[in-house]
Amino acid sequence: MDEAKEFAFEEARDYTGAKLGMWLFILSELILFGGMFILYSAYRYKNPVDFHHASRELDVILGTLNTLILLTSSLTMAVSIAAIEKGRRTLSAILLVATMAFGFLFLVNKGIEWTEKIHHGIYPNSSILLQRPKGEVLFFGLYYVMTGLHGLHVLVGVCVLFGMLILVMKEKINQNRFVPLENSGLYWHLVDIIWIFLYPLFYLIT
Amino acid sequence: MKPEEEIRKKRYKTYVLVWITLVILTGMTFSVAGMELGSWTVLIALAIAGTKSGLVMNYFMHLQSERLLIFKVIIPLVMAVFLVFILLTFSDVAFRGGVK
Fold first, then answer.
1. What domains does chain A contain, in order, with CATH numbers?
2. Distance (Å, rounded) from C-alpha A64 to C-alpha A95?
3. Is the pLDDT of residue B96 over 90?
4. Based on the domain organization, do B33 and B61 belong to the same domain?
5. Model's pTM, two decimal places?
6. Distance CA A37, CA A150 (A)
7. B95 in contact with A, Cβ within 8 Å
8. Which residue of B has its CA nearest to A27?
9. Which residue in A46, A75, A187 has the most chain B C-beta atoms within 10 A of its own C-beta, making it the best mutation to test that interface?
C-alpha cells in the first residue's frame, strides 16, 4: 500500500511546471535588475565624463578576476547537475562545494573592494563623496546599489546551494529526482548573467 | 559504451568548451575597453555581454534542449517588454529640456 502510494506520488510530479515556474521567477529578476540598468543608462547618458572618471577608480583587475570566478562557478554548477543525472553523487557533491567556494571567493573580493572604497570615504552620502561632481556621486550610488543587490543574490545562491548539498548527501536529490538542483542551477546562472552585464558597465567605461 | 553515456560524456565536453569561449569573450571585452573606439566601445561591450549570456542560457541553462514552445517564446517576450521600457525612458530623457 505504502509503495503504491509513493509510486503514485512519484508519478504526479510536474517537472516542466517546476522549471517553468523557476523561469518566470528568473525573468521577474531580470526586470528587477533591468529597471536599474535603465536608470544607469539614463544617468550615464547625462553624465558621460563623470561616469568615466569615477569608473577609472574601480579596481579593474579585481573586477575581471571576479568575472572569471563567476564564469567558472557556472561551469562547476552545470557539470554538477550533469553528474547527478549520471548517478555520480560524490562528483556532483564535490562540484557543488566548488561552486559554493567560488561564490564565497567572489563575495570576499567584493568585500575587499568595498572596504577599500569605504576606507577612502567613498560611500553613499559621505561628506567626501558629496563634494565631487554630481555624475560621480550618481555613479557610486548606482555602483553600491547594483553590485550590492547582486552580491545579495550571490549570498542567497550560496545558501540555496548549501541546502542542495545536504539534499544530495541525504540522497533526496538523486539520479531520478534532481529538479530542485536544476532549478538552483538556473538561479546560479542568472546571477552569473547579471554580472556579465555589470562588469563592462561599471569597470570598463572609456 | 552505451549511446546514452556517450551523450553525457559529450555534455561535459560541451560545457568545458562553452566555458573556454566565455573566458575568451571576457578577455575580448577587457581588451576592447583599452582601445580608443569612442562610442563603439559600449556597443561592442554590450554585444559581447549579450553573446555571453546567450551562451549561458542556451547551454548551461539548457534552453537549447527544452522542447516546449513556451520556453522559446517567453524570453524574447520579456526582452521585448524591456525594450519598450528602454525606448519610453530614453524618449523622455533625450528630449527633456530644462530639467537635468
1. 2-203 (1.20.120.80)
2. 23
3. no
4. yes
5. 0.89
6. 12
7. no
8. B78
9. A75
